Structures are given as structure tokens and as C-alpha cells.
Amino acid sequence: MNKQQQSMILESASHFPPPKGTKLSYGTAGFRADATSHNKVEDNGVKVADPSGGMLTQNWEPFADSIANAPDPHTLVQLITEFATKENIPLDGGKKAAILLGRDTRPSGEFLVEAAKQGISSIIGAVATDRGVVTTPQLHWMVRAINKGLKASELDYFDQLSCSFRCLIDLIPKKSGDNHSIGKLIVDCSNGVGGEKLQVLKEKLNWLDVEIRNTGKEGILNEGVGADYVQKEKVAPQAFGPSDVGIRCASLDGDADRLVYFTIISNGSKKINLVDGDKILTLFALFIQDQLSILTDKNEYQPRVGVIQTAYANGASTKYLNQLGLEVVFTPTGVKYLHTKAEEYDIGIYFEANGHGTILFSDHFLSFLEGKMSTEKDVEKQNAAKRLCAVTKLINQAVGDALSGLLLVEAILQHMGWSVNKWNELYCDLPSRQLKVKVADRTAVVTTNAETTVEKPPGIQEAINALTVKYPQGRCFVRPSGTEDVVRIYAEADTQEGTDELANSVAKVVDQFLGFNSS
Ligand code: 16G
Ligand code: ZN
């Protein structure tokens, strides 16, 4: 690193001394400042997208950790020099770099973007472009598009989503007397960034009967609202009430990378039927399977379809997907693991139960589709190819995206002429329970088999097994959280009582082995 470059970094780093007593960690999907709560408005954090538009490459995470925790500017320069040498990154302006910045609606956003700009301007050859307030998936989409030489503005994003949605609607087979109306959708936007973006889409799409709530104009981010709240608490969010009973509702999270659906069950209660990420995955898988069966003959090329879940997927969903003849595989929790696995297939469909997920298509499959669209004479097949092609454009190829996921769900429901209940009844979720236990050191828990088996501390897995076999359809696993200082417990069984009992007894085991009084 030359002198000029060194002094530029030293100067900018001197304005941002690390906060005392805080150890920052990149965690599952980014730096988070206060990891004890789930994403309150005062929390802040930083996510980094790779040049591919995907999550930060995993082997860069230790570097991200080390520079975030560098005690002083000189150590920072040293760490950068070492890393650049190791990764063959030309410094001193040897290569140009463009960095896109974006933020959500948190008050800390402007300050963080400003800090990032100062850091970037201290690297010779690096140029920052501020894309303003965007959803997390929008920024990932833009990075991917730019690096593929495609149109990459926010307007391009909205155009691509709305055009491909419209295309799917136009391709719905017309049955006489059936206008495919499936009624209104109400969306809870978690008082986050999704509200204003969904409003833009709504204005572009006459085919979408949507009412937008919790846009952040009044309520507080993630307080009694949003996909995380709805999925974990299994209750309706703020601003939803008796007049919404039975209506199709959806919830985004604060940065709009998670999506779940729900309906309110009865008057006077906040109880809901949750339609979670597993069901969204199932809907997508069914539609794709249908279209592929129209498009391809048995004796010709068959794209490899893979469905990727985590251990949190409800057992009933896995069983259903297996019955459809689909290949289902499991990875540890966190989009980066699911996404990487999905890339191994021609069509990789991944979802976490909590609503993070998307569908990835291989280049090979994309050229197969193009070929079909230009040569296929059969109208049915031609249409199936067009539909699949529209899906590849609608669904975000960089990362899970609640807005594009929502449009795909809506298009498929309209295509099938399905109500939300019909969709929800594809299979019936097994009762499940999630608990967390505060432990002295969560890193003492080491798991394997996509987090379903505990290797360390020894003996704990045997204790969990002994409890689990007592319950019909029992399944239970524990794992250290990647975002909070706790060990999480997930249990499933044929009844809610049994499930709760199993979860509670395993929580006791975890506390005995790892709790504060365990040593
Ligand atoms: C992060 C992950 C999410 C995962 C969650 C688990 C991304 C974009 N986000 O929010 O996928 O479900 O962590 O949290 O990867 P936990 O480790 O605390 O259970
Ligand atoms: Zn999110």
C-alpha cells in the first residue's frame, strides 16, 4: 500500500474509533449492534452484498469481523494490507471499484451511509453511489444487475417486476364465466421500508387489489407488526382487526426480505391461520412442477429441481413435498446456506419457515427456456415456457425478496383460482413450539446434519433423543442462535400439548448442560 493510500485510510478511520467494550460480529447475515432484541427501531446494523448480488462470501466474514473490531487506524491499515495480499486485490487505485449504498428507514440509516461514504472515499479508485432508501433485496438486485451489465435502477426493478407479473396474469387460461377474482389482499409492511415500495408497485399494477397497512407513517418499526412477529407469535399484527376476518393478508418484515401470509380466524381474537414460508415454497414448487410437466416430454431433457429447507421447516411440509416427488434437501439456518445449495440445481427453490426465500434458475435452464419459446409450436407448451420465463424475471435471483415473492404468490393464486384457504389446506402443519434458553456460552454447542444433531457437549443429543421418542411424530433439535446470545429449541409432535411438553423438557436439558449453573 502506498503512502498516499495509507494516510487516506488513517485519516478517515480516525473519525470512527470503535465503541469501547463492544465486540462486533458479522453473524448470520450482517453486523448488528444490539443483538438482544429482534430488530427494534433503535437497533442498527450493516449488511454487505457480494458482487454477484448474493450474501457476502462466507470466507470474507472473518476479515469483516477483524476490520470492524480493529482497535486503531494503524491496525486497520495492517489488516487491509494483509487481506489484500492474501486475496490478490490490487490497491493504490490498481483497479476501479463501484460500491452501491442503500439504507432502510431507521433513524441511524443516514449516519451509517455517511460513514460508509467516508470509508469508501478513502480508497483510491473506489466510487460510492447512494441509492437512497431501498429494501435489502432491491439493493442486492441492483448489484447483481449492474455486474451483469443489465439495467439496474430502482425504476428498472419496478418495471421488471410489474411487467413479469402482468405477463403471468395475461397467460392465465381463460375459462368461461371465470374471471379469476380472488379478492383483496391486505399487506402489513412492519412499519418499515416495504410500504412505500409496495405503493409504487400498486400504482403500476391494476391487476393487484391490495390495501397497504403499517407503512411507518404512524407506527413504530417491528413493534407488534411484521413477518417475524406474525410468524413467531402466531397473532395478527397491529392495525388488523375483526373487519379483516377471513381476508387474505400478508406480512413483510422491516427491510422486506421476509414474507408470510395469514388470515384472521374469528371476531374478537387476534388468532390467525399462518401461511408461512414452507407453504409459499410449496405453492411455488407446485406451480413450477405443473408448468414443467406441460412443457417437457418425459423422454427429453428434464431440469433438475431441488427444494431446500432448514430444520425449522414443518415436518408436514417436507412430507408433502416428498410426496410430490420432489428432491428435498436441508441446510443450516441462514439464507447464505440455502442460497448456495439452491445454486446446485437447474431450478432451486428455497425457503425458511420464517419467510426468507426465492427460486434460482441455472443459465442452462434459461437457455433451454429461450429455445423452447422460439421453437415450440404447441400453444400450451409455448405458454408454459412463457410463464416460467416470467417467473425467472419476477422472482429476485440475487436474494429472497418479499415484494417479488408476494407478486408471485398473487399471480399463482390467480392462475389456480385458489383462495388463501385452499392454498393453506394443501397440508396441515404439525403443532410446533420454539423456545430459547440463555446460556453461559452458546459456542459450546456444536451441531451437525444441518443443525439436527448436537455433537458437543457430549450426552446432550442422547438426552434429547430419549425425550423425543416419547411423542408420536416427535421431532426436536437445538442450535446456537447466530444472532442472539441464546440456544434455540424447536419441537414438533402430533398435539400442541405434547409439543409444548417436549420443548419445555428439552429446554431443561439445555439449561442443565449449558445454563449459568451448569458448571
Ligand atoms: C438471520 C438470517 C435468517 C435466519 C435468522 C436466524 C439472513 C438474511 N437472515 O436473520 O435467515 O433465519 O438469522 O436467526 O440470512 P437465529 O440464528 O438467531 O435463529
Ligand atoms: Zn429482514
What does this structure look like?
It is a single chain. The chain is an alpha/beta fold. Helix content is 40%, strand content 17%. The protein has 17 helices and 18 strands. It has helices spanning 3-14, 61-68, 73-86, 109-121, 136-147, 154-170, 194-204, 227-233, 277-295, 315-323, 335-342, 363-375, 379-394, 402-416, 420-424, 460-468, 496-514; strands at 31-32, 45-46, 97-103, 126-133, 185-188, 210-213, 248-252, 259-264, 272-275, 305-309, 327-330, 347-351, 357-361, 432-438, 446-448, 453-456, 475-480, 486-492. Helix 6 packs antiparallel against helix 13 (379-394), helix 6 (154-170) packs parallel to helix 14 and helix 9 (277-295) packs antiparallel against helix 13. The longest helix is centred in the middle third of the chain and has 19 residues, at 277-295. It starts with a helix and ends in a 5-residue tail after the last helix. The structure holds 2-acetamido-2-deoxy-6-O-phosphono-alpha-D-glucopyranose and zinc ion (ZN).
Strand order of the largest sheet: 6-5-7-8-9
Report the principal-axis shape: globular
SS-based structural class? alpha/beta
Bound molecules: 2-acetamido-2-deoxy-6-O-phosphono-alpha-D-glucopyranose, zinc ion
Low-confidence stretches: none
| Percent range of helical residues | 25-40%
| Main sheet: strands, sense, barrel | 5 strands, mixed
Cα gyration radius (Å): 24 Å
Distance between the termini: 49 Å
Rounded mean pLDDT is 93
Number of strands: 18
Count every helix, treating DSSP H or I runs of 4 or more residues as helices: 17
Tell me the β content: 15-25%
